[in-house]
Amino acid sequence: MTASPPTPVTIESFLALPVVQHGDPEVLAGAGHLDREIRWVHAGEVPHIASLLKGRELLLTTGMGIGRGQPEQRRFVAELAGLGVTALVIELGTTLERVPAALVDAAERHELCLIAFHREVRFVEITEAVHREIVDQRGELLRRGEALHQRFTGLLLSGAKVPDVLSELAEFVANPVVLERAGRGIAYHVTNEADDATVLSAWTSFHQGRPNAPEAIARRVPMGGEESWGRLIVMAVDSPLGEQDRVAVERAVGLIALALMRSREEEGLASRARGDFLGSLPTTQASENELRERAGSLGFGEADVGLLPIATMRAPDAPRSAGIEDAGWDLIQRDVQHGLEQRRIPFLAGGRGHGEQMLLVLGLANRGDRRRIADLVASMIHSASARHLQDPDAAVVSVSSLCETWTEAGRGLSAASDALPAAAHGRRRPWHDASAADTDRLLWSLRDRPELHRYAELQLRPLLERDRHSRPKLVPTLVEFCKHSGRKAETARALQIERQSLYHRLARIEEVLGVDLSDGDTILGLFLALRASRYFELDELRVAQ
pTM (2 decimals)? Predict the structure, then answer.
């Protein structure tokens, strides 16, 4: 696709124009910079003409404004050079017979190209000729840019993805291309001639603003409003960058933004379709064959021995930031899907309840893989939560038993989802086993029963009242004592206190509650009351455990 770019108007091409040759031009300074580009031509005679210019112009003058003395002439050149003027052209004969030596010396020192016309020329003819060349060049850039835009559009319409557009762009600009994700480094890159290591090193230098960083063209990839997906970057690693490359990047960045939004929308629709299917499994009346075909149409491969349902939700106490949750959960689901794809584990994943839950069904190759796969998926979810929600414990994971059919998988998903609220309020675990009997789930199911409230209140009220006004607090001691099944040595280590101090606290608890802590039934009853108190709305019965 690479083609010769439009040739910019330079000092060298300016000197070759017939109308310029008519003026018998002579380069007096800056002969080593004839490749500099001319953006525009300006004619003027005022002393402070630099204030009227923007840079990269060629200035035509008869010398009236350069000043009479050497300081003024040197300052005149310094102002032009400081502004980035490409060249100064002085027509001799009207104001000056020759160019002053101070002007030549200053131009050489400031690397400003200085040209003298030894014959009279019409400035208007020069400006018309040069501007015609510039306009033609810019028109060619626009035509090439439009052709490139159509090429990129055709790629996307034919089903190509963002990497295909980046490859086409890299070929056009003859340089590597990097698509950078805001705050997350390189999302994708395409090399041209240099290898991956060279390109990544160049990007690091550019990203960190190092002095040795290559020249680059970087454009923001918008995602609507002020939101930015990242940046599209072309770096001059293999060849110099020109104006045509800037046009190419401008044409590419808009289409890449559209492609990314389209892919995000498509993935959102696909995720919703998978979530609707998984969410409807517990109540569906479809046959097993219909469910299997539906799962296959949504991208699920064949499972060798069984299906493993998993449900996850956001922990109620996870930190929240307005506007971040949905995007964060989308990214968590994406990362988990990517990890499962890399390991070639068949799966379906989808959102449920406005993104409040993520449902998964995985295909297992061996019956003994349940725990290993559950550990793997839980680790993926917690790692992704740390990356995208800044909290590894932001997600609660529940895993059902291994199922042989999609109908059973529906019941498994229902069990895993139903276990999530209790799991969220229970002890933190990498994942909760929805297939096993669990005290926390039982208590959660009974949390609205007044009998449970009354039971916990009768068991704990005297101790809670005592802790409101006295120290040390005895409820934490009771919690650890029950957790360790009445083993005093382990309880003392957990509380980091001397055993004698523990004996004193336990005696005080027995006195306040009127119980015997050496009795197993007593410890069981108190532990159930403590566990149940997690689920009550009354502040005095909320016990930190």
Answer: 0.49
User: CA 150 to CA 145: how far, in whole Å?
Assistant: 9
- State pLDDT tens for residues 104-122: 999 999 999 999 999 988 8
- Strands 113-117, 87-91: parallel, antiparallel or unpaired by DSSP? parallel
CA distance 354 to 363: 26
> Which are the contacts of 362, defined by CB distance < 8 A and separation ≥ 6?
303, 307, 308, 310, 340, 345, 346, 347, 373, 377
Indicate the average pLDDT of the chain.
Answer: 83
pLDDT tens-digit profile of 30-42?
A: 888 898 888 888 8
Distance CA 114, CA 58 (A): 10
Rounded-to-5 percentages of helix, strand, coil across the chain: 55, 15, 30
Strands (E), 62-172: 87-91, 113-117
Could you tell me the CA-to-CA distances from 65 to 62, 72, 73, 95, 400 in Å, in that order? 8, 10, 9, 10, 87
The packing angle between helices 406-425 and 243-280, to 10°, is: 100
* Secondary structure class of 37 (helix, strand, coil): strand
DSSP, residue by residue, 487-531 = -HHHHHHHHT--HHHHHHHHHHHHHHHT--TT-HHHHHHHHHHHH
User: pLDDT tens across 236-278, in order?
Assistant: 999 888 777 787 788 778 777 877 776 665 566 667 778 888 8
Peptide bond into 214 cis (omega under 30): no
- C-beta of residue 221 within 8 angstroms of C-beta of residue 228: yes
Q: How far is CA 75 from CA 44, 61, 88, 106, 388, in A?
A: 17, 16, 14, 9, 57
The DSSP element (H or E) to which 138 belongs, if any, is: helix 123-157
For residue 181, is it left (φ>0), alpha (ψ between -120 and 50) or beta?
beta
The Cα–Cα gap between 288 and 310 comes to 20
Contact 19, 126 (CB under 8 A): yes
Q: Which two tokens stand for residue 524?
A: 């069981």
Give the CB-side neighbour count of residue 267, counting CA atoms within 13 A. Answer: 15
| β-bridge mates for residue 113, sequence order | 87
CB atoms < 10 A from the CB of 394, how many? Answer: 24
Length of the chain: 545
| Nearest-angstrom CA–CA distance, 260 and 264 | 6
**Tens digit of each residue's pLDDT (9 = 90 or more) over 140-183:** 556 665 666 667 666 656 666 778 778 878 888 889 999 887 76
* Interacting residues of 231 by C-beta distance below 8 A, sequence separation 6+: 179, 180, 182, 218, 219, 220, 221
Q: How would you class 34 by CB atoms within 10 Å of its CB: exposed for 0-12, middle for 13-18, buried for 19 or more?
A: middle
The edge-to-edge listing of strands for the beta sheet with 25-29 is 25-29, 113-117, 87-91, 57-61, 40-43
Domains of the chain with CATH codes: 11-131 (3.40.1390.20), 160-263 (3.30.450.40), 286-442 (3.30.70.270), 446-541 (1.10.10.2840)
CA torsion, ordered 191, 196, 198, 203, to nearest 10 deg: 70
Contact (CB, 8 A) for 57 and 49: no
